[in-house]
């Protein structure tokens, strides 16, 4: 099982990034996908979720209206489009696959937003 995040980097405030998480080794279309983030010295925070079919999504209040989660089950990939980025969005972003008793994590990708 692998979850590999990509797309992180350094961006100025107000800019955009798109994170990707490529999954392998399990039936991706059966799993809900979640993006979390963790800033230095802070607890891990749920950012956005999407059901296995993609029909339903959820966003933390802190990112609602700025971030969009989506998935392509044919490509076994989940995305996080991040617009209007703020310095407080700086964190390591992790993708998480959850289905039944299974819970898989990626290694994370760093997002840094400069003011």
| Main sheet properties | 7 strands, mixed
Radius of gyration: 13 Å
* Model regions low in confidence, pLDDT < 50 over at least 5 residues: none
H-E order: EEEEEEEEEEE
* Share of helical residues: under 10%
Mean pLDDT: 97
**Overall morphology:** globular
Distance between the termini: 37 Å
Q: What percent of residues are in strands?
A: over 45%
Number of strands: 11
Class by SSE composition: mainly beta
Enumerate how many helices there are, as a single number.
Answer: 0
Keywords:
single chain; 115 residues; seven-stranded mixed sheet; globular
Describe the structure.
Strands 2, 4, 5, 6, 9, 10 and 11 form a 7-stranded mixed β-sheet that branches. A 4-stranded antiparallel β-sheet has the order 1-3-8-7, with no helix packed on it. It is mainly β and 115 residues long. It is globular. It has strands spanning 2-6, 9-12, 17-24, 32-38, 45-50, 57-59, 67-72, 77-82, 91-99, 102-105, 109-114.
Secondary structure topology:
Layout: E1 2-6, E2 9-12, E3 17-24, E4 32-38, E5 45-50, E6 57-59, E7 67-72, E8 77-82, E9 91-99, E10 102-105, E11 109-114
Parallel strand pairs: 2-11
Antiparallel strand pairs: 1-3, 3-8, 4-5, 4-9, 5-6, 7-8, 9-10, 9-11
Quick overview:
With 115 residues, this protein is an all-beta fold. The protein has no helices and 11 strands. Strands 2, 4, 5, 6, 9, 10 and 11 form a 7-stranded mixed β-sheet that branches. It has a 4-stranded antiparallel β-sheet with strand order 1-3-8-7, with no helix packed on it.
């Amino acid at each position: 099982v692998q979850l590999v995040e990509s797309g992180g980097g350094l961006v100025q405030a107000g800019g955009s990034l798109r994170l990707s998480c490529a999954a392998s080794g399990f039936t991706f279309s059966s799993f809900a996908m979640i993006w979390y983030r963790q800033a230095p010295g802070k607890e891990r925070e749920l950012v956005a979720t999407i059901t296995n079919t993609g029909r339903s999504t959820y966003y933390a209040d802190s990112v609602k209206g700025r971030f969009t989660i989506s998935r392509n089950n044919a490509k076994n990939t989940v995305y996080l489009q991040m617009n209007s980025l703020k310095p407080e969005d700086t964190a390591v972003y992790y993708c998480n696959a959850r289905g039944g008793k299974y819970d898989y994590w990626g290694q994370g990708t760093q997002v840094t937003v400069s003011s």
